[in-house]
What does this fold into?
Amino acid sequence: MAKSQVTFNKIEKEKKRLKKREDKLKKKEARKAEAKENPQGIQFAYVDYNGNLTDTPPDPNLKVKVDAESIELGIPKKEDRGEEEPTGKEGKVSFFDTSKGFGFILDSINQEKYFVHVSGLLEPIKENDKVSYELERGQKGMNAVRVKKI
It folds into this structure.
């Protein structure tokens, strides 16, 4: 004789699923009954000046008039913002393999290692060179780019 294909675990899962469905229907019916007893409509919540939710509307006398022309939409172009020189970081090349084309730079300030690829070099580098660089987010973390010797 063959055993039944319905295991204890399957039965328990089915019971839980049916109980969840019944609870959901009970909650739905309770919400409907409450709405019939207390038909107040939609309750409003306002945000006060401190960012807290309240049930009283804000005072219209405290309203601040904003000139729509003063609002700037979008991001200003780089030349409009002024000439800001990017802050370059300095460090020392702790490892660089020219045959594979990658290495690591040890930051002189926080002693953190950053990955550097040959495509991010402005001039050739080797181990123990002092370099300046900028950071960009890569796939696995921060990468050193625009690397040049000091």
Remarks:
- The mean pLDDT is 86.
- The first strand starts at residue 46 and ends at 47.
